[in-house]
Structure of Alpha-type protein kinase domain-containing protein:
Amino acid sequence: MSTRTEQKRTKTSEIMGVFSKIKTNNSTFFSKTKCEDGHNWWVSFEFYPFAVGERHTVFEGRMYNQHGYWSQSKAVVKSLNDEIGSENNLQFAITCSEKSRSLADTFKDEFPNTKHLKFAQPCLSEMDSVSVFNTPFRYIKGYEKQLAEHEHVLIEEFIDGDYQLFIDSDGIRRQESDFLDTFLHYSYVESNGDFVICKLEGVERDKDIKLSGVTIHSRNRSFGPCDHGEQGILNVFKNHRCNDICKNWPTPAFGLVPSAPVGSETKIDIMDILKSDAAVLFSSKTDLVSPPPYENLTNADIRKIEDRPMVHGQCIQKV
């Protein structure tokens, strides 16, 4: 009797040992980089995403720092859609955020009466546990991302509110916001034409706008795979429409419509254009960018340029 009981106990222990090795939750190790408050975080998160974007699959979860359970906060976990995340291919997102946050501070100094512009600071972390329940939920929910052991992901604080895309990565305004139009143009001028910050999405609140996941196009393409270089800058300013604040600021001077668009019903005075040029050249922000190489322009761009008359080195719209 005792032998049979002992055999049952042994069998039960073996079964429990097998089940103990089955990973039932998604979680990360403590992050390798710190948040803006100086903390490292780890996250436990859902079996399926609540959003899938062009580049990331996004899961909701709870994040904790070294102070334990009571430090918990709502979080999002971003994993790359088409490849396994690594330190190298996710570092660009952190760099873009840091650059945007730095520029937002100088923007606030120059325009103190505007809302405070904030950017979420992603933390780089590595997967600790990948749940066995992810696979059935992939089929039930119909998403493609398959998380891998030791894959790197980004952790961000969850932004509560009505999340919107204000300006996309081509500079097209999706929601009305003169404030963000100004910031986009400001990033180009303040960087002396080296880059432009776009894909501005997040939540607008009473006193601030909290954004996440920006794209930066730069002349030397130093901000990752979403950075389309000079052609990206050109595309943004083809779609950007200036307001009263930024209408006299420099723009890429080749292949673009005027900084302040002119309606077809408005007559253009040549002297006004020359005065506008002079205001740009003698303003405090005078570092105009050299035209992009001709071969970087698309055929559509070239046709647009040829269809418009040239005045003082700039394209103007026909009236």
